[in-house]
Design a protein that fits this description.
six-stranded parallel β-sheet
């Protein structure tokens, strides 16, 4: 099985960086719990503020990972036996690679492939022969499922109420790692 991971909202706490800049620029007090998706336009923000917040997030040298992400990805890499594949919706995937490489990997940085450039990741799923993607953005999940891709939804405040069907839901990286080890039992 060829597995891909989204970056923002799955591995990196990118939304917190974006909301922090918005809060400082606009005197707001937004948190991830205020979101109903990755679309920030419903928050009533102007386009320049949104652009600045996203550019600020891209420019960060390092973004905090979600609890357990680095440890689980390290174990998955050891068991999987091939580079970890990350497919991001970022227009510049190199920014995601730089931030992933900056994480506290122990003992070494795993081999990684980072691709993407659009929230609709179907072209990248096909190009990389992906069977299953771990995602947090529900916008294109129905499209992925309709084309036969398995989808694991990493539950976050902005997607918990989604009624979109997925192959599997993950409450945490520990949950995802356990699932992974169950599908690769001979490699434990």
């Amino acid at each position: 099985m060829n597995i891909a991971f989204d970056v923002d909202g799955v591995v990196l706490k990118s939304i917190e960086v974006i909301l922090d800049l918005i809060n400082r620029a606009k005197g707001r007090n937004l948190s991830p719990e205020d979101l109903s998706g990755w679309d920030l336009e419903p928050l009533g923000l102007d386009a320049p503020t949104l652009h600045d917040a996203i550019a600020h997030m891209y420019a960060q040298a390092r973004i905090e990972p979600y609890d357990g992400a680095v440890q689980s990805l390290s174990r998955i890499y050891r068991v999987y036996g091939k580079p970890l594949l990350f497919i991001t919706g970022r227009s510049d995937p190199a920014t995601a690679l730089r931030q992933l490489e900056a994480l506290p990997w122990n003992p070494t940085i795993p081999e990684m492939i980072v691709t993407g450039g659009n929230r609709d990741k179907r072209i990248y799923l096909a190009q990389n022969s992906v069977d299953f993607i771990v995602e947090d953005d529900v916008k294109h999940i129905n499209d992925y499922m309709a084309e036969g891709y398995g989808v694991g939804l990493m539950l976050q405040p902005w997607n918990r109420l989604s009624k979109t069907s997925v192959t599997r839901k993950f409450n945490s990286w520990h949950d995802l790692e356990n699932w992974f080890m169950d599908i690769f039992p001979s490699r434990k």
